[in-house]
Amino acid sequence: MNSKTTSLIGAALVLALALAGCGSGSSGSAGSSGSNGAGATAAYDPDATVEVGSLYEPQNLDNTAGGGQGVTEAFNGNVYEGLFRLTDDGKVESLLAEDHMVSKDGLTYTFTLRSGVKFHSGKPLTSADVKYSIEKVIAPDSQSARKSSLEVIKSIETPDDSTVTVKLSGKSISLVYNLSYVWIVNSQAKNLTTTEDGTGPYTLGTWKRGSALTLERFPGYWGTPAANKQVVFHYFTDATALNNALLTKAVDVVTSEQSPDALANFTDNGDYKVNNGQSTTKLLLAFNDRKAPFDKVLVRKAITSAIDNKKLLSSIWGEYGTLIGSMVPPTDPWYEDLTSVNPYDPNLAKKELAEAGYGSGLSFTLDTPNYDPHPTVATFLKSELAKVGITVNINVITADEWYTKVYKNHDFAATLQEHVNDRDVVWYGNPDFYWGYDNPQVAKWVEQAEQSDTADGQTELLKKVNQQIAADAASDWLYLYPQIVVASSSLSGYPVNGLNSQFYAYGIKKSGGRG
After folding, report:
1. The domain spanning residue 366 has which CATH number?
2. What is residue 194's DSSP assignment?
């Protein structure tokens, strides 16, 4: 998972949405999955408490109301479930939808719901809940990261309690994939920003803001029960405190290691296992492309070429992490290495600045989230850009301030942010997104890709999108985070990848130690 937000995106988005091992058993139940083989499981304690350390506390508990990366991490797949779910390697599996059919013209999807599913309140799952949940995501006030992707939905019908018919205004090859992001909630529930009513293997126990959030195994779960009785997410404000908690055994696992220097404490220690998984989290220097000077392509290209991303990545992550030169991680079908499009070259940067009319330099304010590694990255960028005549004023803000100021109000010049989702290059086809990139050709390619009849057709078009946003330096994709999960050797079955900030806890088995 990573310092993210796209989390916010998930939260807001960025924002975003580490994912979890989610194998699908024959029953399709959540508890059947597990993704990591670390640690012996023969003598695991089914009533253990798993202590999870994280830097990403929820802003609220509703992923359509700016809940943030933290609510995705703790709630997705654990408390709430969708019609479908994403596995650890990004595949889509059926979950609350037992089956589905697509009409020949690709405009009508019919979903059959799994029987015997109940919400934590005891109310049976019906098609009305699915209709409500989807409409909640695409409502005018929704802050869901997948809102725009699902606006192709024209109508939702519920012919009976177990059937949902979704009609589209146009073909959407990604509909089932996008529905995996929609949490099915009780349509009669209230105050979902502070309470919950899902169908998942856990219920919400207590949430002490600024400290911890507890999940309790749900005895009425429709599928295989969670492999542990309780999961406690402990929240920390900095990576050092988080690592100290792991070293002192206050937590059993860190969902995403953010302090590379601390890895030496764990790599040669038999009490721990260090897992280097695959990440989808991109750290962006995001420009507000609506405002000068970032409305000029040459300025954005100049800034990108003035920053030594390789040096930045090495200074923070050492041998970990990847340079990608774009919004697309290697795990996406339309990935290409585009790091050479805007190469590190200060002389080229100065030339492009001069051609853009800023030969004497320029200045801008960089809104910087206050959690690691953003302040360090901001200082590095300030130093790099000063070498080509650009003055950076660093404005440190909280995650809540970032969400309101940057994501919601678009009141910024440039910012740092992580985007955790896979397949999120399509957001560059939306000129209303917070970074304001507006290229009609890119928007058209994104639209055509979604209407493709085949995956190959979709891939070809989204590669064009990827190439064009790199050529336009729509943002500066500084690097792709590594996904490092560090856990006690007494644990197994925990997620090791960084897909969309998910952290499926139901498969975690704990042997010995605390319980």
Report:
1. 3.10.105.10
2. T
